[in-house]
Amino acid sequence: MPVASKLTGKTLNNRYIVLRPLGEGGMGKVYLAKDKRFDKQVVVKVPTMEVGDKDFKDRFMREIVSLATLEHPHIVPTSDWGEIEGLPFLVLRYLNGGNLRNRITDLQGYYKPMPLERLNEWLPQIASAVDFIHSKNWIHRDLKPDNILFDEAGNSYLADFGIAKALEGTPMGVKTTLGTLIGTPQYMAPEMHLGKGVGPRADQFSLGVMIYETLAGKIPFAGETPTAIFVEMMQGKVKPIHELVPGIPLEKSNALMKGITFDPRDRYGSCVDFANAIMRSMLVREWSSASAETPPMIVIPETKIEPTKKADFLVSRLKTSVKVTTSKGEFIIELDEKAAPITVKNFLSYVDEKFYDGTIFHRVIKKFMIQGGGFNPGMNQKATKGNIKNESFNGLTNLRGTIAMARTPDPDSASSQFFINVKDNGFLDKANSGDGAGYCVFGKVTSGMEVLDTIEGVQTGNKMGHGDVPNEDISILSVIKARETKIEPTKKEDFLGSRLKTSVKVNTSKGEFTIELDEKAAPITVTNFLSYVEDKFFDGTIFHRVIKKFMIQGGGFNPGMKQKATKGNIKNESFNGLTNLRGTIAMARTPDPDSASSQFFINVKDNDFLNRANSGDGAGYCVFGKVTSGMEVLDTIEGVQTGNKMGHGDVPNEDVTILSVIKA
């Protein structure tokens, strides 16, 4: 009997007590175990093979190598490995939120199709993870709903690298053997069926099949044999998703079909491009008697700094606040008349007329937004005034707690309806929106956000031809002016506005750039960083880790990957509300949230998943400043060639040296 079948009750590495089986993956049996050292549950994976099966063992070892070298926030983390009676085993983080298969099928295994917006629960994160492994010259080759796992907070993770393979430098990538299928036929790209060269776009095809399956409640290629499945792919007879699921726009349907087209050359350049094509145009529309499409959420754009610019968010301006009393409680919204004068004037005119009193929140989408301002109970639409000009160019961003105007696809069609973001929805901003227009933010919730969180949690369904309508009316009892005040930038959530700041100039072997530090938002972190600057600790160190489309890390190693001794660790100030946007600087750390010392990283793209609100560990990474000049130098550094050195990955092949860091 294979060793994998009789592990329950055993202790591995004198540390992991195997509790019970959880199931089987493509390569091995999976067990729940207890880590005695940290008193927590983990997963142990052991190959289901006979001891002498070297081929199978080699493939399992490949999974160990894959996971050990592929560190990404949305790839299942590995923590240890070992051998038992000649068989390798892998120790992974235990994720207790189930898998995507659980979410798209019921207990009997029948499909329960998901609405378009539910793709946001996993697609952006998984697309990012897949592109990341491609950037490391790996292909997963077995993407399917069973291999998309979730933690308790709902974050998604890519799992099961048992048949992942490294690209071998050929133009077509890796090759499989004709007639030997490695993977799951319904999800495998045609080139895998043919045994031809397989590149990163094979994973994109599999991702597309999962998207189709999630929305339609059926597999697009459902032949009874691998040959029949391949013939269906070759014939291209799959029904476009918009013909199966009412309400999916033609452009979204076309985007999905492009991702699962037969010829890999006709697919998207990356999985993130594919995901964005499907998600970016899912707009927040002002409802009428016509149906509305539902939006997901992606990234937070960069916030400007100076309070004299329109992009500064609600800092040092004369503002009017309104108090909204609802059947679930009350909250206060502070309006930004300077950034959005037309919108605020229009909104207040409806307030003065008591237009909103007695209306309902007619649309609630979890992890997205709450919409109101247009319907009475019974879904009776109210007559409104004329439409207003879209002021989305004002630089305010669709962050959690902000209020924005709903509209139709016509950018200048907003009237009375508004929505409140219950998470950061940067893709709705003008700079990121699919239609180039975006949605105008005109204020933010300053108290009572917990009331909106309660509303977000209500049960919803279909009513009068509309989806996402609360089953029980959530009434807006009244909206009244609360006060007019000059708001000083004393709150932590004000992002780098109207504050005395210290800047440092970083001179490197690739050029120089300037960083402005936010002492008010991150006093402990900035004090710590400046102490290293004053000690000239950073002078002569290197940027020891560079990951394209992610970040640049430094502050801890001299040339030759010689680590420097540091001072004590500091408290993580990631609660300060600053976000990991392109150009921001944040502290690097170990899995211990309060372990940062000298090392820092600079984001070269928006990395929303590193923020406390979105991070897998609930701690996040503390931002404490931003680059104000010389970002092009960091873009140059991002482009350098990297490799492995002294046991570390992503190390520049040629040293990129920090010559000096001085107060500017």
Would you kindly provide a written description of the structure presented here, covering whatever features stand out?
With 664 residues, the protein is of the alpha+beta class. The protein is 19% helix and 27% strand. The protein contains 13 helices and 36 strands. The strands form ten sheets. The chain has an eight-stranded antiparallel barrel with strand order 13-14-21-19-20-16-15-24. A hairpin with a 3-residue loop joins strand 15 and strand 16 (369-372). The longest helix has 16 residues, at 54-69.
Keywords:
alpha+beta; 13 helices; eight-stranded antiparallel beta sheet; 664 residues
Topology, pairings included?
Elements: E1 11-12, E2 16-24, E3 28-35, E4 40-47, H1 54-69, E5 78-84, E6 87-93, H2 100-104, H3 123-135, E7 138-139, E8 148-150, E9 156-158, E10 165-166, E11 174-175, H4 190-194, E12 197-198, H5 201-216, H6 226-235, H7 241-244, H8 250-259, H9 271-279, E13 318-326, E14 329-335, H10 341-352, E15 359-365, E16 369-372, E17 375-376, E18 380-381, E19 402-405, E20 418-421, E21 441-447, H11 449-456, E22 460-463, E23 466-470, E24 475-486, E25 502-508, E26 511-517, H12 523-534, E27 543-547, E28 551-554, E29 557-558, E30 562-563, E31 584-587, E32 600-603, E33 623-629, H13 631-638, E34 642-645, E35 648-652, E36 658-663
Antiparallel strand pairs: 1-2, 2-3, 3-4, 4-6, 5-6, 7-10, 8-9, 11-12, 13-14, 13-24, 14-21, 15-16, 15-24, 16-20, 17-18, 19-20, 19-21, 22-23, 25-26, 25-36, 26-33, 27-28, 28-32, 29-30, 31-32, 31-33, 34-35
Helix pairs in contact: 3-9, 8-9
